[in-house]
Specification:
The chain contains 17 helices and 62 strands. It has 1031 residues and is an alpha+beta fold.
Amino acid sequence: MPSLSFVPLADVAHLLPADAWIARRLRDDPEELADETAAWIAGDVQWPELHLDTPLVADGGLHRLAQGQAEPVILPRRAPYLVLIEGSLRIDGALTASDTDGTTNLVVLGGLHVQHAVIGGQLVYVQGALTVDELLWGHYNHGDLQVNGGLTARVALFTDEYHVQVAGGEQVEFLLDEARGVPSLAEFSAEVAGLVFAPEFFDGIDDGADGIGALLSRDRMVEAVRAGESPLRASAEITADMPLASDLFADEAISVANILAVVNSPIVTHKEKKAPGWFGQTDFSLCRRHVDADGDQRDNNVFITVWKTWDFYLSVEREPQRTGLLARLAAAVLRRPIPFTEVATLIYRGYTEGTPDGWKVLDDEAPAEAREAATRAWRGVLDYVRLAVGQSRAGYPLYHRLQAELTPRRIEQFTSLPYFTEEYNDWWDSDKNGEWHGDVWVGARQPCLHEGEPYGRALKLSWENGEPRPGDDSDDAYGAYQLDIDEARAGPPVVEFKYTQRQSEARTTLPRGAVDHIARLLRIYAQVEAQIQGAHEQQQAHQAEQRRIETAVHLLATPPLADDLPDSAVFPVELMLLSGQWQSGGETYVAAIRAHQFAMTAREQERDDGAQDEDEDEPTADLPEDPRKASAPTVLQLARLVNRHADEALAARFRQRFAFAPDAYVRTAAKAGQFIGPVYLLADGRILARIGPSYSESAHWVQIDGAVPTSLPALKGLGRSADGSCFAQSDGIHITTHQGFGGAQIAQLPLPRGNEGIPESMGLVAGSLGQRCDEIIPFNDGQRVLLRNPTGVYLVSAAHGVQRLHPQEFDEGDGDADDGGPYTWPKNHQDAADGEPPGSLLAMDMLHMALSPDERFIALGDQDSAHILLSAQDGRPLRTLSTQSSYPHHARFSHDGTRLWFNSCHLYNGITIATPVDAADDTEGTVVDAQWRVYASATLPGMVAMGDASGYVHAMDDEGSTLWRHHVGSSISAIEASGDGSTLLVGSYGGYLAVLQRTETGLDPYSIGTSPYMEVRRWIFWDNEPTPLRW
């Protein structure tokens, strides 16, 4: 038995091959890897499998080898940095690594023989030979494969800048190499993957532009090979679909012999004399020597265009050989051809701003970039021709497969789905002629008469093919396949397969030998069909289930209900049983999540106290799924039924029986939820809320007073002063301030136009975007308001009109150089709305503002600024603070106005800093949280409540210590606190408006978190519901 020991990595440094990067790192900086261990095995090893993510798994080879040692071997707590084998390794199954960012490394000083190897994220070094019976896939630039004794594999795939070094030769039946820049089946197209891999291993609908790695599901691949399944098609199937004419060219040079081989291949028919083709942004035309219809002699030539970048004309001309007068006379009398010599004429031209330059000779004196582009384009043509001639010799097997699979009947059934007949059913209407599915646009035409012309059934599949070049229409760089069904011909209908490289070009017949295109069409058709058909079947099943639920859900009694009527007389026995399961399942689920959170908090505290090693792995916990998901549709239908009665007593009974479960409805909330915010709680208990994001035409304000929300269509913007006495509102024409909501008017103020305070030289215009009221904050006296919309933050007053507060500085750069500040960048500009004067408006992201309670300061920022503090008196900048994460996102003053919190974000995380308002020298702030991306907040004396992107409200005291958290569900968009703190209103992106009340009875058993608040009501605004639901 081979020996095993776990030793410091440095102890095996002398055994490592000198050219392995681990050896180099140990030589260059020994301290860097001083804490790492190695599993050192002496002798040959045979294992059933090896997973480099988890090499110490209980039933794995290392674990078993450790158990079999004469002396006990204690396994380390962490996976070893390296598995070193002084011998050979045979793996009967798979060598895998799921994590491409870093796993255990493997060095084998003998040979390595595996069934499959799906690796990446580590060093795999084989001193001897590497033999892979089936698939070898190395992926991502964090991984290295180094083999010194030769490589043998059926399929070798290298993607996403994976590092490969092989000495000793390679014998690979099917090489797909996107990493080394060597000739391979994938050199000019990723579509070979569709012929090599089984269809179930593709991931989403991808156009193939980003390579094979983006086409395939690596997780599915790892799972399959670990289970002993092969993701590959049989070699015979691959070869049958993709025969290669490997003997067609002796080399890949641009030579007379190769040009003649191309134009004399079966691609160019004797009748047509010419043949076009294209791949990616390159198109070409092959011309065999002939006299054209105008009587002009055409030489053998290949014309290649890299769209608006390069043109190459590669021809073979016949030059008569020099002979004497008598020889020429004899040839003329005897009608013999004059001897000639075939010579190549090679010329090229580039492009300037989309316009072709003059022709030049393509020789050794031509610029290197021209020669390299010519070689690349020429080799692409050779690859196309090899594949096409292989198809011709074999009788076009791939085209016959296309005809056999994409039959008229199949296309008719697919395009007859309601998706095409009811939803996207107008070929000539840009809003209804199709939709994107992943990277592919899909549209269908039903048989019809249009403007008096008959049209047959058609299916169009389009994808982005490169980028527009100078002078191109913005939507021209899209390739397309169109499948027309010809039913008018005699005999059965047939499918006419057509294609085009660009939208502006006519669709032409798809050549039978265009392997890349046929493979792509087969792949994307199958993926699109599966997605749309699957969605249709899911919808059918959902509708059937919904009908069943609607039939099953009913009430035994309807309002008004007697107070002493038991619930069992209101809800059927099935719903009473479901209620018990729902509530008990909810309590169990919440308790499990809460326990996990307590454990994580305790662990963080131990780490902060130094009682735990910071490098120690986090414990993994199998957190449960919410068990209420399965019955959520039934309970939702009951909620609809209860809401129709708009009865307070019935609603209370329902909520008592079925506490809301946000995690059971997370998908519906993400899909159908309407943004809510801001929200205001009035003294008389009424709630005012904006439903829908400010940029949406459907955004509107509602008043909730009782069981049914009432729309406020005239209201376009609303805000409340710090002391709660003054409200500002907009009707879209101007702003008015009032004593209380709907009270006596104090002042009328103008709306900004959007380009105030912007240098005229920037050319930005005014427009309706500048009059939008995303947020308004009136001052207590009602004479001034702060207003925010994408064009900026403004201070508006009756006395001084509109003053821009942000941005105040515009760096326009120097001259024509593209070095201006962020407010000159196109991403921060937006075209004026239809019907407005043409031009662009300033349109910033993540713009936010806050007014201090004493009305002395304004805090604000946007995605491209720092955290900024201004004087509220005149708008003068007072301080800036650096962001701790990527982008400024939110600001809030403490309740007493002495402290200020700023939040900056990156993706769904963020960092919150705190600073005393009067600390003029503080430019960094103090980090109080490094997790939350804050969207909304509210304050109470000594406390701030912040809502994050994960659906939690977090409470901190003024010193930054966490007090509690409460989960509402979906990203928090608004928080409102009553004056005494007894009630919180929380709005979210998922369409939730939750009403929380402070309680002294302990934690809410149905709400995740640790807050002293209990949810007593929830309004649900989902756009797939005809009316809001009260829960």
